[in-house]
Amino acid sequence: MQLSGTPYQKFDVQFSKTVSPAIIIKSCLLTAILFILAVTPGHLMAADITWTGAGDGTSWSQAANWNPQVVPGEGDDVIITLPGTYTVVLNATVSVNSIMLGGESGTQTLRKSSGTLTLAAASRIGPNGVLEMLAGYITGDGVLTNEGSIVADAPSWTGINNSTLINEGELVHERGIFYIASSALFENRGLYRIAGDLNISESGAMGTLLNTGTLEKTSGEGIAAIGVLVDSRPESHIRSSSGTLRLDATSTYHDMTFHVATAPSGIIFNYGTHTFRGTISGEPVGRVTVNTSIRAHESGGTLNFTGTGLQWISSYLIEGG
């Protein structure tokens, strides 16, 4: 067999410009990134995941209940705004980018029954939204703002950990300990209602309850103890309508009012140092009692109590204004 054709020729190829190693590396990296994006399944990439309830109508963990049909995960923005009255049950530890809970009509409830919920970005409970906290923490860098209702109904405990919760609606504390843990901030602009002899406690670094609304014990004949720093700002209110509300941590009160609605009820400053700033008022029917150190703020403090007044049974007025 004989082959014929153009004889082999040598070509001298010259490049008019040298390609730098940096450009080659950048080109390779770009190609790799484009390849990864091309082969990565959609559910592994951040997305808006919207509740449809088309599956069992209840389970967070069932993909068929979401659009697109994937279970929300890290980086996803979760949207539960479908009109109607229903409950979404979250019974696992989950990290998401954000949550929007509450539609235009009906009542949309997210029941967090176990695990930790981590929020990376600003999240919101709308006026028709309800968050039921039955166990575990809410944590993360995302600020959660409640314009609807939060129900703390934990057989043991629930709360927030190293995060910020702003309550502009109502939080009803029905069962268990509510922790404001690891320097967490609970900002109460609405109503925090303690519906029993229940405690608000710290764990790890001291948390803060910043009160610009109303903090009230509404039921239970025993003691509800607040063991975190309370910073009660101007025109805020602290009330006891049933039983005793006990303040157990160093705290500050500024131009605000204490209320005790009935003779058997009371509010007691029990531990820590409590600083009064501006005018601290009250018209208690029951007792407001001092059993620990009181400090006047450097700018001065005035006690303006009528009714049964302020009863000082122990400790001192210490340094300050």
What does this structure look like?
- This protein is mainly beta and 321 residues long.
- The chain is 6% helix and 48% strand.
- It is built from one helix and 32 strands.
- It has a 27-stranded mixed β-sheet that branches. A five-stranded parallel β-sheet has the order 21-24-27-29-31, with no helix packed on it.
- The protein is elongated.
- Mean pLDDT is 90; it is low at 1-17 and 33-43.
Task: Record keyword descriptors for this entry.
single chain, 1 helix, about 325 residues, mainly beta, five-stranded parallel sheet, disordered N terminus
Q: Classify the secondary structure makeup into a structural class.
A: mainly beta
Q: How would you describe the shape? A: elongated
Low-confidence region ranges:
1-17, 33-43
The helix content is: under 10%
Task: Give the N-terminus to C-terminus distance in angstroms.
Answer: 113 Å
What is the radius of gyration? Answer: 29 Å
**Major sheet summary line:** 27 strands, mixed
Average pLDDT confidence is: 90
Percentage of residues in DSSP E strands: over 45%
Question: How are the SSEs placed, and which strands pair?
Answer:
Blueprint: H1 21-39, E1 48-51, E2 66-67, E3 77-80, E4 86-90, E5 94-96, E6 98-101, E7 108-112, E8 117-119, E9 123-125, E10 129-133, E11 136-139, E12 144-146, E13 149-161, E14 164-167, E15 170-181, E16 185-188, E17 191-195, E18 200-201, E19 208-211, E20 214-219, E21 223-226, E22 229-232, E23 237-240, E24 244-247, E25 251-254, E26 257-260, E27 266-269, E28 273-282, E29 287-290, E30 293-305, E31 310-312, E32 317-318
Parallel strand pairs: 1-3, 3-6, 4-7, 5-8, 6-9, 7-10, 8-11, 9-12, 10-13, 11-13, 12-14, 13-15, 14-16, 15-17, 15-18, 16-19, 17-20, 19-22, 20-23, 21-24, 22-25, 23-26, 24-27, 25-28, 26-28, 27-29, 28-30, 29-31, 30-32
Antiparallel strand pairs: 1-2
